[in-house]
Amino acid sequence: MRRSLATTVSDSAFIRELGDAINQIPRQTHAAEVTAIVREVARMLGCNGAVFASFTQGDEDFESYRYIVACAASWCNLYLEQRWFAIDPFLIYAQHHTEPAVGDEISLRTEGQRQFRLRARETGFNSIAIVPCHTAAGRSRMGVLYLTSEDPDYFTRQTIAPAKMCLRSIAAELLEWWSQKIRRDLLHNLSIREDELKLLRLAHQGFGSKEIARLFDARPATIDQRFARLSLRLNVPTRAMAAKLAYESGLFDE
């Protein structure tokens, strides 16, 4: 007989095993490696699948979305084909809340959302836990962990409550992993130097071209040109947006 979620998370051996698995996440380089860990964590929790989505709030083009998919490939393909990320009620919930929730308690407001939930059940996702995860104040990148079960009664308010700390720990580690990976990829792909990071950091702090020019012992026009080239490499129209992107991508983190 399968153990309940509350029983699982009260087991000290499980807590140690879960901690060991979570501690492996920062050491991984590739998403496939993290996916394998998430798949194992889902199994330990008695789930048949898990998905973690990370994205920047307000991204209407969905270009910032990154996923760890440890569930049936058929569901992932259907999700992308139907572009359900644009209407996913669980993603919408996570953008405005911090409390873990049961999927069936989240309102379905459109026919598209009702179809989304119906097809999820057909794929074996009868019960879903939603675990939002937000970054520090001022940053808009966030994440949401989905855990799924074939048992329609597996996730309830009562069973999620004692597991809240465990679920949040998993989500927070995955969000940190994605944030660090995005940072590494940006620094590597764009070959941003330390002096360019300093330029972006000063712009983010509100310094103007004349102030920055004095710090760099350069002319304001030279600083303007350097910002123009940086903005072009970061594919944004202004220095303000370049500085914001650098901050939210963790480029200023030590």
Short note summarizing the structure:
The protein contains 12 helices and 5 strands. The chain is α+β, with helices and mostly antiparallel strands and 254 residues long.
Using brief descriptors, characterize the structure shown.
Arc Repressor Mutant, subunit A; Beta-Lactamase; 2 domains; five-stranded antiparallel beta sheet; 254 residues; 54% helix; single chain; alpha+beta; 12 helices
- Give the count of helical stretches: 12
**Beta fraction of the residues?**
5-15%
| DSSP strand tally | 5
Strand order of the largest sheet: 2-1-5-4-3
Return the CATH architecture of the largest domain: 2-Layer Sandwich
* CATH homologous superfamily annotation of the largest domain: Transcription factor LuxR-like, autoinducer-binding domain
Helical residues, percent: 40-55%
| Radius of gyration based on Cα positions | 21 Å
The backbone outline, from C-alpha atoms, is elongated
Structural class: alpha+beta
How would you state the average pLDDT, rounded? Answer: 91
Distance separating the two termini: 48 Å
What can you tell me about this protein's structure?
The protein is an alpha+beta fold. The chain folds into two domains: 5-178, Transcription factor LuxR-like, autoinducer-binding domain (Beta-Lactamase); 191-248, Arc Repressor Mutant, subunit A (Orthogonal Bundle), CATH 1.10.10.10. 54% of the residues lie in helices and 13% in strands. It starts with a helix and ends in a 6-residue tail after the last helix. A five-stranded antiparallel sheet has the order 2-1-5-4-3, sandwiched between helices. The protein has helices at residues 5-9, 12-24, 31-44, 73-81, 89-96, 111-122, 157-160, 164-190, 194-204, 209-216, 220-234, 239-248; strands spanning 49-56, 66-70, 101-102, 127-134, 141-149. It has twelve helices and five strands. Helix 2 (12-24) runs antiparallel to helix 3 (31-44) and helix 11 crosses helix 12.
